[in-house]
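Holo prediction. Input below; ligand is NAP.
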Amino acid sequence: MKSEKQKKVVLITGCSSGFGLLSSIHLAQRGYEVVATMRNLAKRGALDEAIERHKLSLTVYQLDVTDIKSIEACLKDISGKYGHLDVLVNNAGYGIGGFFEDLSDKEYRDQMETNFFGVLNMIRLSLPLLRKSSSAKIINISSVAGLTATPGMGAYNTSKWALEGFSESLRQELSLFGFQVLLIEPGPYPTEVFTTNTRFAEKAMDPESPNYEYTQKLYKKYLARNETLKSDPNEIAKLIESLIVAKNPPFRNVIGPTAGLRYYFRRFFPWRLNEWLVKKVIFG
Ligand SMILES: NC(=O)c1ccc[n+]([C@@H]2O[C@H](COP(=O)([O-])OP(=O)(O)OC[C@H]3O[C@@H](n4cnc5c(N)ncnc54)[C@H](OP(=O)(O)O)[C@@H]3O)[C@@H](O)[C@H]2O)c1
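Structure of the complex:
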C-alpha cells in the first residue's frame, strides 16, 4: 500500500524532454500520482516508452503554459480525479539567445510569455486546488541565469530574474497559509535546451548585424555544450523529490556544474572582476 507521502499529486509542466520528462518518470517510479503535461502530445514518445518499460502509472495531458484553456481543462480533470493538488512544478521553458539589439519585440515578449507569464498562469489557476492540499508546494525551475546575467542571453536572464523576484514575494504571501514556494537554479545540464530546442534571435544570425561576430562565438559555445557537459539532468529530478519530501527545505537551490561558483562570484566579488571574467570566458 502506498504511504500518505507517496500518494501526493504532482503536476509538472514541459514533460516532453529534459528535466520535466526525467522528473515525471522519477516521481512516478516512487509512487507519486504524477500528472505529466506537455504542449505537444506528438512528443510523448520518450515518456510513453518509459511508462511501458517501467510499468508506470501516470497521467499525460496536453498543456501549453501560454494557453489558459489547456491549463483549465487539465486542472478540471485533476479536480475531478483527485479533488486537490499537492505539488506544482513549473518547469516548462526555453532560452532565446541574441544581443538585445537583434531581438525583436515579439521574440522578447514570447520569452516572457512562456518563462514568466506561463508560470503566473499556472499558479493563478492551480491555487484553488493547491489550497485543498494539506501540504502544498510550488517548485519553480529558475536558472543560475536568474541570479547572474551574461551578454547575449538578456531575454532569458530577464525572464528568470522576474521569476526569482516574483517567487520571493509569493513565498511570503503563501507562507501565511502554510504553502511553500521553492526555487531551483540549475547550472548547465545536457537536455534538449542545447540541441533541438536551441533558439537564437533571427536577426542575430544575420551577417549584417553589428553583433554578428560576437553572437557567432556565443552560438558555437552554446552548441558545443552538449558534447562537453558531463552533468546528469537526473540530479534535478532527485532534487525535486527531496524538496517534496523535506519538511522545511531551503527556498533557493542552486545546483549543477559551475552554478554555485557563478552565484558566489557574482554575489561576493567586485562587479568589475565579475564582468571581466564573463567577457573572457564567453568571447575570449
Ligand atoms: N538544461 C539546463 O541547462 C537548464 C539550466 C537552467 C535552467 N533550465 C530550465 O529548466 C527548464 C526545463 O528545461 P530543460 O533543460 O529540461 O530543456 P528542454 O529539454 O528543452 O525541455 C523544455 C520543456 O519545456 C517545454 N515547453 C516550452 N515552451 C512551453 C510552453 N509554452 N508550454 C508548455 N511546455 C513548454 C518544452 O516543450 P516542447 O518540446 O514542445 O518545446 C519541453 O518539454 C526550463 O525552464 C529551463 O529554462 C535548464
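The chain has nine helices and nine strands. That is the main takeaway for now.
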